[in-house]
Amino acid sequence: MYKQQLYGRAYVWFFIGWYEDNWYEVNLKNENISCTKEQMKMAAEGHLTTEALMWNQNNQKTISGMSSEDFRKRLNAALIAEGYDISHNRYPEGYQEAPLAYDAVWSVALAFNKTMQRFTEQNSGKNLKDFTYTDKETANAIYAAMNSTQFLGVSGVVAFSSQGDRIALTQIEQMIDGQYYKLGYYDTQADNLTW
């Protein structure tokens, strides 16, 4: 982009938003990028990103009993205990996705509980411990349970589409002066864009 002069006010770039905030400065040598950090910053200036909202935006207690801020504090304390220096806003790779991973585990646990409850109510004699990958009946029961799972998690409202995709708000950001600024959110379920 920089060397072809495809940047500046005349261009609008859209990048995926789940890279770490300083993605354009790190690993340049490892990725054989011949631009300097300054050139990368100039080329990246003004770009827009979209990504699934990864942190619940209010401080409500979630299904775990923690708010998203409680979870962030607990995660940061664990990272500090492991020797990570997060005091300079340098987080390990995957940090942004931690709330999604946490809520994914809750989703699986809730789906398994629903499946076990269904088997008990049906008095079918089936048990999750006996599940094999050729057991279509149990697989369908787990799929149905997952599909109907909905709760408030540290990443926001957790629900799934009929295809099994996570339904989440989409966050829209723009890089201005090297910093990301939130521009708005898109709610796919309500087909609503809020700036």
Strand order of the largest sheet: 1-2-6-7-8
Please report the total strand number as a whole number.
8
What oligomeric state is this?
Answer: single chain
Using only C-alpha atoms, the radius of gyration works out to 21 Å
Structural class: alpha+beta
Number of helices: 4
Proportion in β-strands: 15-25%
Low-confidence stretches: none
Helix content: 25-40%
The profile of the biggest β sheet is: 5 strands, mixed
Rounded to the nearest angstrom, the distance between the terminal CA atoms is 28 Å
Q: H/E order of the elements?
A: EHEHHHEEEEEE
What value does the average pLDDT take? Answer: 91
Shape call:
elongated
How would you portray this structure in words?
This protein has 195 residues and is an alpha+beta fold. The longest helix has 25 residues, at 98-122. The model has no long low-confidence stretch (mean pLDDT 91). Helix 3 crosses helix 4. Helices cover 30% and strands 19% of the residues. A five-stranded mixed beta sheet has the order 1-2-6-7-8, with no helix packed on it. Strands 3-4-5 form a three-stranded antiparallel beta sheet, covered by helices on one side. The two termini are 28 Å apart. It contains four helices and eight strands, in the order βαβαααββββββ.
